[in-house]
Amino acid sequence: MYKQVIVVGATGMLGKATSAYLKRRRIKVIGCSRHGPDIKCDIEADPQSIINAIKEIKPELVINCAALVSLEKCELNPKKAFNINSLAVKFISEACSFINCKLIHISTDHYYTNDSNILHSENDPVLILNKYSETKFKGEQYALEYSNSLIVRTNVTGFRNQIDNPTYIEWLINALKSKNTLKLYTDFYTSTIDPISLVENAIMASRKISQTILNIASSNALSKKDFAFLVAKRLSIELNWAEDASVKELKPKRCNSLGLDCRKAEMILSKKMPNSSEVVDKLLEGMPRRFK
Known about the structure:
Blueprint: E1 4-8, H1 13-24, E2 28-33, E3 39-40, H2 47-57, E4 61-64, H3 71-76, H4 78-99, E5 102-106, H5 131-144, E6 149-153, H6 168-178, E7 183-185, E8 189-190, H7 195-206, E9 212-215, E10 222-223, H8 224-234, E11 243-245, E12 257-258, H9 263-269, H10 276-285
Parallel strand pairs: 1-2, 1-4, 2-3, 4-5, 5-6, 6-9, 7-11, 8-12
Antiparallel strand pairs: 8-10
């Protein structure tokens, strides 16, 4: 197991969960982001700061969780999206190469559309529909230039604990418990996984393979509507007020068939990825008190 790890984007939802997971396993974690918690590194405005941190600390592993994930913000500011989702990955990869440490780069699943709940392999052709997917795909290409990298395609949700900036699962639980208006997409499919399952399997895989793309997600794909009904069932809530909606109504245009085939990861790790029911159970087991 790694002894010292830098987590880039440490104050985000996945970065926080990753840092907490590593600390529970008594691994030294150095969290980097614009606001720390350990080192302040602005990968957009001052990429040299993260390069210096990696070279000075010399970790065994760098996990890049940083990203601009808002499709709207990526469209409105494509330069910002490129700097964070693409160019920063190039700088991080080059710094890792300088000290020859492992890099796990967290990518996206936003590459497939209009084929329902099909599970896509790492070799399936991608479709670029917006600046988010364009810049994330370019980031993958930069990471693949480094021989000791692992690029993880995934769809992850968890708890951020920021009332004014809820994650998908936080928004959904609040809406279910408050019986807020719910419009649920019937044509938007994902293989959503919880943060702990993601980071645990990514770290295990990083010890076995390099310079490759790997899907790490739930073993099946569900529509957003079916996922919401699954969460409601686990919370013993009768969801009888939701309305059907289509992702095609949204702007900017986005991919809607994001299922990921995880058989490659399962073969490498000699284990099954969790299914959607198991993912929901894990999410609700770790639900903060304010959601209960």
